């Protein structure tokens, strides 16, 4: 009986593959998209899934899962990231990216936090595949339209570098590799640590608008939600806290934390966790308005819930185009200098001077506060841990080998041949 059941399952799988192949041939279905999604589901641990297999799996589901896992493992073994991937095909790629980022940073320091944030928003949604860079077209949605991504910056920088790379090495360097390398350079010019990166990523042919809307953590997210979100992607408490150190650069608007100043959790009072002196400073820069009596909007921005850092004012409280929504410089005029990249953020948390609710929450539980204290007192430990976490983030769920493509423009999928 069981042998016959196994034969039926095998026959069904075989027929399904044949039928799908015929459909692809006749109708031009994007077969790589379907396989891409299946492999990504298969790679996820059952304990870490964000909406995959049912807890009550049939033997047939197990067979399909095993089949996809074996395909994923075979691809991983045959096509993997490695150092100096473009050594022969585009040897000047790294230098072009680094040189361009440094030149732009010298004129516009806001590019650094913008690119770090762009990387996080790409990698956190179905992996580091440059899907966040895609524009909408008649057959494709776009992650740019997701609420957490509406204020993302840096697309023009990535596109400009891609254009230069295409002139020198057409069709060689992926947008996914370009983004991780540009973000690394952004960390470096902002005073953060250097970290080595393997290359060989390929670009997604689809975008994930709904997942971006649903899964990027909000600035108002609780610590439990934040830790669960990072854990589902393989990051432990230590790695999560270290990644939040990127909040030591960039800016944010009063809109995203004003409820903590005037109406925390609907109490009509300030958040009691805010340092009293700091609260008065913030109230001066972010005066009460009718909107402050309502909960802050939750665009959900995760690792870097901020716009690019400002460099146009000597004060860390600046007026924006909306006079009622000032801008706060998260570096506090580069407090302590570049060597305090990260550590100033943790020191301010210990002083109860975290701006975002999600930031200050890191001191709310022992398993995260221990790392806040460690990084506040040991800059070398933070730099090491941050570098390791950024390497891990940059390698999250990448596409290699036959999966994906190499776009010639980072905002557009290559047309089907």
Describe this structure in words.
The chain is mostly helical. It has 3 domains: 2-39 and 61-78, no CATH class; 93-213, Peroxidase, domain 1; 217-394, Peroxidase, domain 2 (Orthogonal Bundle), CATH 1.10.420. The chain is 47% helix and 2% strand. The chain has a 3-stranded antiparallel sheet, with no helix packed on it. The radius of gyration is 23 Å and the shape is globular. The N and C termini lie far apart (47 Å). One of its GO terms (biological process) is hydrogen peroxide catabolic process. Its cofactor is heme b; Ca(2+). Disulfide bonds join 90-169, 123-128, 175-410, 254-286. Substrate binds at residue 217.
Question: Main attributes?
Answer:
3 domains; Peroxidase, domain 2; 417 residues; 47% helix; globular; disordered N terminus; Peroxidase, domain 1; 3 strands; mainly alpha
């Amino acid at each position: 009986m069981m042998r016959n059941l196994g034969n039926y399952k095998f026959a069904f799988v075989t027929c399904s593959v044949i039928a799908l192949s015929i459909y692809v041939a006749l109708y031009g279905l994007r077969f790589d998209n379907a396989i891409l999604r299946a492999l990504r589901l298969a790679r996820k641990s059952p304990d870490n899934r964000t909406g995959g297999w049912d807890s009550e799996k049939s033997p047939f589901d197990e067979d399909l899962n095993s089949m996809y896992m074996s395909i994923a493992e075979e691809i991983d073994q045959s096509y993997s990231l490695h150092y100096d991937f473009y050594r022969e095909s585009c040897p000047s790629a790294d230098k072009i990216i680094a040189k361009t980022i440094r030149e732009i940073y010298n004129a516009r320091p806001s590019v650094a936090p913008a690119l770090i944030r762009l990387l996080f928003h790409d990698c956190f949604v179905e992996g580091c595949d440059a899907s966040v860079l895609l524009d909408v077209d008649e057959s494709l949605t776009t992650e740019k339209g997701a609420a957490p991504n509406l204020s993302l910056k840096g697309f023009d920088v990535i596109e400009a570098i891609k254009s230069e790379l295409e002139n020198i090495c057409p069709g060689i360097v992926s947008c996914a590799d370009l983004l991780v390398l540009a973000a690394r350079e952004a960390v470096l010019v902002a005073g953060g640590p250097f970290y080595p990166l393997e290359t060989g990523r390929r670009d997604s042919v689809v975008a994930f608008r709904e997942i971006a809307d649903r899964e990027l953590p909000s600035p108002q997210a609780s610590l439990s939600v934040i830790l669960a979100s990072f854990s589902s992607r393989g990051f432990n408490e230590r790695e999560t806290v270290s990644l939040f150190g990127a909040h030591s650069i960039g800016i944010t608007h009063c809109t995203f934390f004003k409820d903590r100043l005037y109406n925390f959790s609907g109490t009509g009072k300030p958040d009691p966790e805010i340092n009293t002196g700091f609260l008065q400073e913030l109230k001066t820069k972010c005066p009460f308005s009718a909107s402050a009596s309502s909960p802050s909007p939750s665009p959900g921005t995760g690792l870097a819930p901020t716009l690019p850092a400002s460099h146009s004012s000597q004060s860390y409280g600046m007026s924006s185009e909306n006079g009622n929504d000032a801008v706060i410089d998260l570096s506090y005029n580069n407090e302590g200098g570049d060597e305090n990249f990260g550590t100033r953020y943790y020191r301010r948390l210990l002083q109860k001077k975290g701006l975002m609710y999600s930031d200050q929450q890191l001191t709310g539980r022992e398993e995260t506060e221990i790392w806040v204290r460690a990084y506040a007192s040991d800059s070398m430990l933070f730099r090491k841990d941050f570098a390791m976490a950024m390497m891990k983030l940059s390698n999250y769920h990448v596409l290699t080998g036959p999966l994906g493509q190499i776009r010639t423009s980072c905002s557009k999928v290559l047309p089907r041949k």
